[in-house]
């Protein structure tokens, strides 16, 4: 699925925090206008689920997923609202089982070789590498690429406009995620042009 989506979307995934529900749709439109279509709406605030539903209905060009999935219940709730993919900062046995049953694109979060092996054993070849910068960044991903050449990573955590290129240059990285694409100041000022400008430049 990621392969297919990446044919028509930039390989970047904004990690979106919705403080005010009315920002969800214009923010998504601003990103899509700049070619950023893979949108990870986090469950960090109470508006996450509703925002997923609203964006799905109002912005058909967006590919909307759910982030900060920390339980199987989170995943089930987000799927009911129409989330097309799901991302977790880590994984539990329960989440992996629920994601397998769903069968859709789920990115479990990993940080160590052992975790890469655990989720690969469970059938997940596409993984989130989190927190990327704090855990060794590009060098760590290069090292993981040795024994795990078949695994594709989406690093997130501490990545910004100055560094995301370095990650995307790695052959085991399929996309890069982060909150830099939807800065808090631009969101609260409802400065959609600023968000489109960032998206275009990315
Ligand atoms: O909440 C989640 O779903 C997470 O798993 C963590 C986020 O992906 C990173 O915290 C984003 O990191 P920054 O770009 O440094 O803000």
Discrete helix count: 10
Detail the poorly predicted runs: none
Strand arrangement across the biggest beta sheet: 5-4-3-2-1-9
Strand content: 15-25%
CATH structural fold name: TIM Barrel
Question: What is the CATH architecture term?
Answer: Alpha-Beta Barrel
Number of individual domains? 1
Please name the fourth-level CATH homologous superfamily: Aldolase class I
Q: What shape does the CA trace take? A: globular
**Ligand inventory:** 2-keto 3 deoxy 6 phospho gluconate
Tally the beta strands: 9
| SSE run | HEHEHEHEHEEHEHEHEHH
For the largest beta-sheet, the strand count, sense and barrel status come to: 6 strands, parallel
What structural class do you assign from the helix and strand content?
alpha/beta
Helix content: 40-55%
Rounded to an integer in angstroms, the radius of gyration calculated over CA atoms is: 16 Å
Highest CATH level, the class: Alpha Beta
First and last CA, distance? 22 Å
| Mean pLDDT over the residues | 97
Summarize the structure in words.
The radius of gyration is 16 Å and the shape is globular. It has one domain: TIM Barrel. Helix 6 (113-121) links the parallel strand 6 and strand 7. The mean pLDDT is 97. The strands form two sheets. A six-stranded parallel β-sheet has the order 5-4-3-2-1-9. The relative contact order is 0.17. With 202 residues, the protein is α/β, with parallel strands linked by helices. It starts with a helix and ends with a helix. The chain has helices at residues 2-6, 24-33, 48-58, 72-80, 93-102, 113-121, 137-145, 164-168, 184-188, 192-201; strands at residues 12-16, 38-42, 63-67, 85-87, 106-107, 109-110, 126-129, 152-155, 176-178. The chain contains ten helices and nine strands. Helix 2 (24-33) packs parallel to helix 10 (192-201). The chain binds 2-keto 3 deoxy 6 phospho gluconate (ELE). The site of 2-keto 3 deoxy 6 phospho gluconate has 15 residues, from strand 9. 2-keto 3 deoxy 6 phospho gluconate binds next to strand 9.
């Amino acid at each position: 699925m990621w392969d297919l989506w990446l044919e028509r979307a930039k390989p970047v995934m904004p990690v979106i925090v919705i403080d005010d529900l009315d920002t969800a749709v214009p923010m998504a439109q601003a990103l899509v206008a700049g070619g950023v279509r893979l949108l990870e709406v986090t469950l960090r605030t109470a508006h996450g689920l509703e925002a997923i539903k609203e964006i799905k209905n109002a912005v058909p060009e967006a590919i909307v997923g759910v982030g900060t999935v920390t339980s199987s219940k989170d995943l089930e709730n987000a799927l009911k609202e129409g989330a097309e993919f799901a991302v977790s900062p880590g994984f539990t046995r329960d989440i992996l089982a629920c994601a397998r049953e769903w069968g859709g694109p789920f990115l479990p979060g990993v940080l160590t070789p052992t975790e890469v092996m655990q989720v690969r054993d469970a059938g997940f070849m596409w993984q989130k590498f989190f927190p990327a910068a704090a855990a060794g960044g590009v060098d760590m991903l290069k090292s993981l690429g040795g024994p795990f050449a078949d695994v594709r990573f989406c690093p997130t955590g501490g990545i910004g406009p100055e560094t995301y290129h370095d990650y995307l240059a790695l052959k085991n990285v399929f996309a890069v995620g982060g909150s830099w694409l939807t800065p808090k100041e631009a969101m609260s000022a409802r400065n959609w042009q600023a968000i489109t400008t960032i998206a275009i430049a990315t």
